[in-house]
Amino acid sequence: MTGGEVAGILVAVFWAILVSFLAVVLVRLAQTLRATTRLVADVTEQAVPLLADASATVRSAQTQLDRVDAIASDVQEVTSNASALSTTVASTFGGPLVKVAAFGYGVRRALGRGREAEDVPRAAPAARRTVIVGRTVPSSRRRKQKG
Asked: Largest Cα–Cα distance of the chain, in whole Å?
């Protein structure tokens, strides 16, 4: 055997090893691609129903939000009506009620002064006392606090 033949045999052996290695790599790559295809198919099977459920949920949420918006606008209208009603009642009855209360207060005060003058003798003004927060205060101090 000559040197050229030995070199040819070595190249053929290396070429056979290289082809064997590439064949193993291609077989493994084919297995990986089959597994990936199965995985994508499974994910697609599960994702489609999930997306349909999510779409239905979003539609339901939109419907509920529309209802809440309608309720909120109704509440706003009722609030404005109640505010207008309270303003009307206050303007209609407020003035006369204040006048009646002031008149009643004046009558009570006038009657109270008349009774006070009849009940207390002029010789002993300090005899009458008033209780304020659990203690007795002379009537002269009581008059200062009222007025």
From this structure: 160
